[in-house]
Design the sequence.
């Protein structure tokens, strides 16, 4: 089970990532938004696999009508994934968000 603290730790381990508030929630930025807490226990990431992930595990991966205009944004119920899977998703989100260079391993 992953937590907001895991999101924070993984994000801040990547070069150039900063943390600040966005819409009243903790958020992490590379060149653009890479991850944000949507609500308690639910995080937002960018992925090119949104449709596939949500089709395979709709109780874990989903989006709201708010996210329809941003086809790479996906919500994750953190309690339903482990930190290794979270790390992989955040690495992809970092790349999509324009993270500088190659992320350092966790």
Sequence:
């Amino acid at each position: 089970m992953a937590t907001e603290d895991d999101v924070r730790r993984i994000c801040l381990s990547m070069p150039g990532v900063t943390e600040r508030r966005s819409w009243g929630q903790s958020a992490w930025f590379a060149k653009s938004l890479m991850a944000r807490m949507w609500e308690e226990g639910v995080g937002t990431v960018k992925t090119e696999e949104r449709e596939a992930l949500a089709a395979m595990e709709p109780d874990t991966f989903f989006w709201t009508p708010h996210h329809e205009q941003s086809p790479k944004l996906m919500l994750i119920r953190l309690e339903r994934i482990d930190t290794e899977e979270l790390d992989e998703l955040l690495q992809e989100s970092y790349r999509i968000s324009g993270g500088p260079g190659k992320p350092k391993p966790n």
In short: The chain has one domain: 4-96. The first strand starts at residue 18 and ends at 22. The mean pLDDT is 93.
